[in-house]
Amino acid sequence: MDKNSLIISLEDISFSYHGRVPVLDKLNLSFYQGDRMGLMGPNGSGKTTLFHVIMGLLKPSSGRVEIFGRHVREEKDFGGVRQRIGLLFQDADDQLFSPTVLEDVAFGPLNLGKSQDEAKTIAYRTLQSLGLAGFEDRITYKLSGGEKRLVSLATVLAMEPQVLLLDEPSTGLDETTEKRLIDILKNLNLSYILVSHNIDFLTETTDYISYMANGKISLDEESIPHTHVHTHKHGRYAHKHSLGGPHKERT
Ligand SMILES: Nc1ncnc2c1ncn2[C@@H]1O[C@H](COP(=O)(O)OP(=O)(O)OP(=O)(O)O)[C@@H](O)[C@H]1O
Ligand SMILES: [Mg+2]
Asked: Which portions of the chain are predicted below pLDDT 70?
């Protein structure tokens, strides 16, 4: 697939749960090969719903979904989509279901027709690449929240997808692990859409940030806070950092 070809195209997509007010309301999105897009939006604005529509887990009430240039409508159309697009669920417990980490990470490759040995090799390799070597025999449900997050990512990456949909991947990660995740994402060389409420994390890992509100997506610079105030552990005065701008002391 060429760089800059259209991978995900959503046209006038509407969706509501059980006939309630629409969560997605004539939403449009064009996502291209090579894009690393951040997606922000308030709780309940429909980011997770959007991912589930792209994966075919929810069916829009109207609109057109095209993925890799193909119009996808019914369950049978989404088989190929799910091989090429990996979804990291917001809740790791939706992702992990096997007794051990190795079984969970090998499950995807096995499902894609790899042999037991190949699947195991891929699983070992993927776990190692995420700094999780030695986790193979750990009991999945006994992992900590952050460990589950990373193992979930391993299950997605083991399928060798072309595109990732990452639903709040940094939630529950400590500072060191979050930094590791940033490095991993930067080195992946994959296209992805990344949902997060953390502007610093998004700034590090994505090329542009879109905003979701009122059932639609906009690239609205105005609505994204570009400066923030915080205090350092050392130093007496709070000050502002502008992204890419000068370091301004507050007087
Ligand atoms: N299975 C469901 N049944 C009914 N309503 C739902 C269901 N899942 C989500 N909703 C509602 O749809 C809206 C959008 O939810 P969604 O999970 O997509 O938001 P979100 O932007 O991902 O939020 P968050 O930032 O909290 O993860 C919310 O009002 C939510 O209550
Ligand atoms: Mg969500």
From this structure: 1-3, 220-251
